[in-house]
Amino acid sequence: MENFKSGFVALVGRTNVGKSSILNELVGQKIAVVVNKPQTTRTTIKAIVNRKNSQIIFIDTPGIHKPKSKLGTTMNDTAWESIPDADVILFVVEGVSNEIGKGDQMILEKIKQANKPTILIINKIDLSTKEQVFKLIESFKDEYHFKAIIPISALKKPEIEVILEEIEKNLKEGPAYYSEEEYTDQTLRDIVSEVIREKALKLLQDEVPHGIFVEIQKMKKSKTRENEPIFNIEAVIYCVKDSHKGIIIGKGGQMLKRIGTYAREDLEKELETKVNLKLWVKVKEDWINNDLFVKKFKKTD
Fold first, then answer.
1. Which of 294, 123, 243, 263 is nearest to 201 (CA)?
2. Phi, psi (5° rounding) for residue 278?
3. Beta carbons within 10 angstroms of residue 86's beta carbon
4. Would the pTM of this model clear 0.85, i.e. be above it?
5. How big is the chain by its Cα radius of gyration, in Å?
6. Please, what is the angle between helix 188-204 and helix 242-249, to 10°?
């Protein structure tokens, strides 16, 4: 196709600024975990948007934060490495202040070093005044020549199109790296694991920190007695303390049952088939500092 463009776009920003929600809206599919908590994206997630004259491959990076474990350090390293590797950067910040915070300034310095075309997304402007947002825009303009600055609160179709058009403008001519049917390079096991973890984080609220890791132990497609297709899935939710295990299971197993029910409902929509989901909870003390576990979250490409 004449003048076809393609490229990799890194979504970067601090924790909990809304990168994963933005990614899901841009792609039109639920790819990334969306929880109102920091540090929910642990690995780079590729998501693909196929347009008439372009293919945009998004990389949703972990939120940049002050690490307190080996996992946190690995997450930060993964995010930093994605900046120079990208063709275009989508820098997401919160519009809740009229000045650039320390965390955003640190990310901005990395963007300056990479010197890549960058689009600034100022999210959650509904939590601020117009004057604050205007001052924040001016502050960022003074720091870097952004290709576009787009303030948003909740993404709607016109805003999604504006962002995609701005990205497309800054891509170079290139081939389609993926087929039109593909929308993510995550495996089914990855997606299932993330759905279960998302439901656990949402239901547990602040009772259990982010020391949760879901491992899929079995995923097999079979038939029911009525000869209908069904996915049999067995998964383990790892946590760091015995006290956390009790909270995840809940009184009489009620919390674990709720996590399983909500996850199963989502998975049946995602997989478009019935799902039989079995969950267990195990303690793996201090796994967030265990090299064998942490290496699962390291960037591999």
1. 263
2. -120, 130
3. 23
4. no
5. 20
6. 90
- pLDDT reported for residue 141: 94
Q: In terms of C-beta density within 10 A (0-12 exposed, 13-18 middle, 19 or more buried), how is residue 32 classed? A: buried
- The tokens describing 152, both together, are 């948003």
Residue type for 34, please? V
> Whose structure tokens read 């170079």?
172
CB atoms closer than 10 angstroms to residue 274: 16
CB contact at 8 A, 283 and 238: yes
d(CA 91, CA 10): 8
Residues contacting residue 299 through CB under 8 Å, at least 6 positions apart: 43, 44, 77, 78, 81, 82
Rounded Cα–Cα distance for residues 180 and 198 (Å) = 28
Q: How far apart are CA 301 and CA 288, in angstroms?
A: 22
Could you tell me the sign of the dihedral formed by the alpha carbons of 122, 12, 195, 48, in that order?
positive
The tokens of 263 are what?
């996850």
Cα diameter, the chain: 66
pLDDT per residue as tens digits for the range 156-206:
778 889 999 999 999 999 988 877 766 665 677 878 888 898 888 888 866
Reported as a pLDDT band with limits 50, 70 and 90, residue 45 is low
Rounded alpha-carbon distances, angstroms, from residue 43 to 31, 139, 194:
12, 31, 11
The tokens describing 30, both together, are: 């639920």
Domains of the chain: 5-173 (3.40.50.300), 188-297 (3.30.300.20)
Report helix, strand or coil for 129: coil
The answer to whether 52 touches 1, Cβ cutoff 8 Å, is: no
Residue with tokens 């949760």: 212
What distance in Å separates the CA atoms of residue 91 and residue 170, rounded to the nearest whole number? Answer: 14
Backbone angles phi, psi at 21, to 5 degrees: -65, -45
